[in-house]
Each structure stands twice: as structure tokens, then as C-alpha cells.
Amino acid sequence: MDFFNAVGEYFESIGADIHASYDSMWRSRNRANSEDKRAKSASATGIVTERDAALMELPRYVYELGARARVLDAGANGIERIDDAIGTLSMLKTVRLDANALTALPRTFTNLVTIRTLVLRGNALKELPHDIGNLIALEELDVSDNALTSVPKSLGACLKLRRFNASANAMSTVEDFECLGTCVELEKIVLSKNKDMEGCLPVSW
Predict the structure, then answer these.
(1) Class of residue 94 by CB neighbours under 10 A (exposed 0-12, middle 13-18, buried 19+)
(2) If both were cysteines, with which of 39, 50, 93, 182 could 61 make a disulfide (CB 3.0 to 4.6 Å apart)?
(3) For residues 155 and 179, is the Cβ–Cβ distance under 8 A?
(4) Do residues 185 and 162 make contact, with C-beta atoms less than 8 angstroms apart?
């Protein structure tokens, strides 16, 4: 009786392994098909939608879009780095990379001079590109919930900036934001939850 039980358990185990392998293969195939569909849609519309897609990096098709890309939404993933090839998406208007694991932006990021909305909330950024002022079309910048200790002075060159959120970072002094005095269209600044921040509002404001 023990022999037949053992044989039965063996075949049950084999069956479970086959089922798991088939399930894994099916999920992989579905992911590939889904990405292929999103790639075709992005090529046709210029809108990249990869939010909450369990990504560790941007799919290669994103970089291949070049100047066709208008919107990039890859928030709520586990992306740790962005390839330098991002600089080829020269006509991007909106970039949402919130809730990822980015610690820095690539050096080519500031080539994206047509960006109007940039959302980097909820990453692990310690600094912004020193030449972020190159983003002359920028109207909204959200870098809240990161690890920033200051902002580049060149940010003052973003003369169209209307909304700026740098809350929940590691900023220590309000004086770092004096550069924003040149942003005459600025409507809203949020600097809350920077617990070590000291100083008075800059005179330039």
C-alpha cells in the first residue's frame, strides 16, 4: 500500500511541477504580448503607459520611440535607473516617474527641453541635475518625498515654472530656494515636511 501511495505522490508532484511551469510560461507570454500591444499603441499615439507594471527598467521600445514620444508614465514600478538614451525622446511634454527607486537622473535628461510636467515624487533622489535650468518649458516640478538636500541654482532659469513641490526631503535652509525669485509665473511652492529647514523667506520672493 505504501508503494502505491508513494507512486501516487510522485505523479502528483510531477503534475504540480508541469502545471507551475505551464503557468509561468503562460504569464511570460501574456506579459510579452501585453508589452507588444503597449509598444504599438505608444508608437501610434506617442503615449507610453507603463504605470504599475512591475518594471525594474524602462522597456527598450520606449527609447526607440525617439521624437514620437509625447507622454511617459512609468510610475509605481521598481525602476532604479534611466538609460542615457532617454535624451533621444526630444519631444516629451509629460514625464511621470513617481514611486520608483531612482537615486539619480542620467546626464542626458536635461536634453528634454520640451518637458512641461515632471513628476519624480517618491524616489530616492539625492540631487537634481546641475543644469536642470535647461528645461525651459517646465511648468510643474514635483520632487517631493526624496532625499534632496538642496536644489540647483539653475532652476531659476525655468521661467515658466508655475508649481513646485519639494516637500518631505532633507532640505536645511529656505535660502537654497532664492533662485526661484526669477520664476515670475510661479503660483505654488510646497516645502513642508523638511524637518531641519531653517531661515526666512528669500528676499527675491
Answers:
(1) middle
(2) 39
(3) yes
(4) yes
* Cell matching residue 63: 527609447
CB 128 within 8 A of CB 118: no
> Residue 197: what pLDDT?
75
pTM of the model: 0.81
Helices (H) and strands (E) in the chain, counts: 2, 7
Asked whether residue 16 carries a pLDDT value surpassing 70, the answer given is no
Cα angle 137, 55, 75 (rounded to 5 degrees) comes to 35
Of 118, 145, 144, 122, the C-alpha closest to 132 is 118
Separation between Cα atoms, residue 151 and residue 205, nearest integer Å: 16
